[in-house]
């Protein structure tokens, strides 16, 4: 603040002793736009079904970039797309995990059945 006052006086600003007017501009507080970068990174590293996690990560980075330049609308649009892709990646990977467990259980039961029949055949 002192530097600005000094620069004004050096530049030849007014030196009147009258009342000074000040203008106050109320800036809106920064709107918080979640960019979902951590969630996208997790989906990219651990649950990257059809590259949805990687695409969500790209949209999250775009959202963060838009937020940094002050484009809140663009940041919200990219964040919404990233969130949607993360949700779909999560749903697909939950279904894939459940399907893998079911296939493993069925495969184990078939193998156990085949081993049991082989033991019964050897007994005759």
UniProtKB/TrEMBL annotation:
The chain crosses the membrane at residues 37-59, 87-115. One of its GO terms (biological process) is response to interferon-beta. InterPro entries: CD225/Dispanin_fam, IFITM_antiviral_protein. Keywords: Membrane, Transmembrane, Transmembrane helix. Its main location: membrane. GO terms for cellular component: plasma membrane. It is found in: Membrane. Belongs to the CD225/Dispanin family. PANTHER family: INTERFERON INDUCIBLE TRANSMEMBRANE PROTEIN, INTERFERON-INDUCED TRANSMEMBRANE PROTEIN 3. This is Interferon-induced transmembrane protein 3. It comes from Sciurus carolinensis (Eastern gray squirrel).
